Amino acid sequence: MLALTFPGQGSQRPGMGSAWTGTPSWALVDRASAVVRRDVAALLLDADAEELRATRNAQLTTFVASLVALDALRAAGLPEPDGAAGHSLGEYTALTAAGALAFEDGVRLVAARGEAMQAAADARPGTMAAVLGLDVAEVQSVCEGVDEAWVANDNAPGQVVVAGSAAGVEAAGVAAKERGARRVMPLPVGGAFHTPLMAAAAEGLRAALAGVALTDPRPPVVANVDAAPHGAGDDWQGLLADQLCRPVRWRPTLEHLGTAAGDGPLTLVEIGPGGVLTGMAKRTLPTARALTVSEPDHVEAVLAPLG
Predict the structure, then answer these.
(1) Is 124 in a helix, a strand, or coil?
(2) Do residues 45 and 118 share a domain?
(3) Which of 17, 39, 84, 229 is least crowded, fewest Cβ atoms below 10 Å from its Cβ?
(4) Are strands 229-230 and 221-222 parallel, antiparallel or unpaired?
(5) Nearest CA-CA partner of 154 in 164, 140, 144, 165
(6) CA 132 to CA 40: how far, in whole Å?
(7) Cα dist. 214→35, 98, 171 in Å?
(8) Domain containing 177 — which CATH number?
(9) Which residues are catalytic?
(10) Strand, coil or helix: what is 293?
(11) Does this model's pTM top 0.90?
(12) Structural domain contains residue 152
């Protein structure tokens, strides 16, 4: 079984588009720039870490960079996948890869999502931190004992992200360490995503989603909010809006893909900047083969073992 995964915000890095400029797939960057009337190429090539950290920039660049890599993979002969999933923002990339969203519609939605989340974060500032060494139930219990802190991502065994106000996340981090967490790491994001602090963004996103047609994804995409595959396009407007205020259930998503593979081998290919999801896959499904495509040099190296 082959499943494609796509990274979310936080995977961006300065210069992440530089290796792709000489490839035919770079044409997608010009298409994205025309849709949003912004210089996406400049963001992918010249923006520094602080500029990329802004939500409106991080989401747009990660989405476009991931689809550039996917386009190159497909041009080189990527087999049709049996499953797909994306982490937070990456869910939009997965839906575009699965044909549920046209590229231009995906760009518009991601831009609208980034702007809505940026506005919500400006109005109600927040932050996020990864808690290492505790399971999700322990971190949930920690968050219930402090104000304005929630579990935002269940990423992998022993890796859970909390989000909320700066004071809430700090208090949750202290309590987590008291319970035995090995480390609490601040994340380079600009808000308390996947928490109730994003309620205003969810409402704004619903309006943007209402103007976009989502067709049935093929293969079905496993949703963040319930870790279940959804093959009906009509399901996705609600799922994408709900995602902003609910935890990303990434560990259960990977476990679903592992179960779907049955007794056969599972190959997970992370497509886009970084390699964060590949590490999560190795922690969650140690018997699966986890591969990453973030640079052109990775394309042939990944396709070779896929036959």
Answers:
(1) coil
(2) yes
(3) 39
(4) antiparallel
(5) 140
(6) 34
(7) 18, 11, 41
(8) 3.30.70.250
(9) 88, 194
(10) strand
(11) yes
(12) yes
Residue type, 81: P
Residue owning tokens 């912004």: 38
Starting at the edge strand that comes first in sequence, how are the strands of the sheet with 289-293 ordered? 229-230, 221-222, 83-86, 2-6, 267-271, 289-293
The CATH number assigned to the domain holding 244 equals 3.40.366.10
Number of domains the chain contains: 2
Give the Cα separation of 50 and 61 in Å (integer). 14
In this structure, which amino acid lies at residue 33?
S
Asked if 156 and 115 sit in the same domain, the reply is no
Give the structural domain span for 85: 2-123+196-306
Q: Would you say the C-alpha torsion 65, 66, 70, 71 has a positive or negative sign?
A: negative
82 and 203 within one domain: yes
List, for residues 57-106, the tens digit of each pLDDT value: 999 999 999 999 999 999 999 999 999 999 999 999 999 999 999 999 99
CA–CA gap between residue 21 and residue 139 (Å, rounded):
42
Residue count of the chain: 307
- What tokens were used for 169? 């996340």
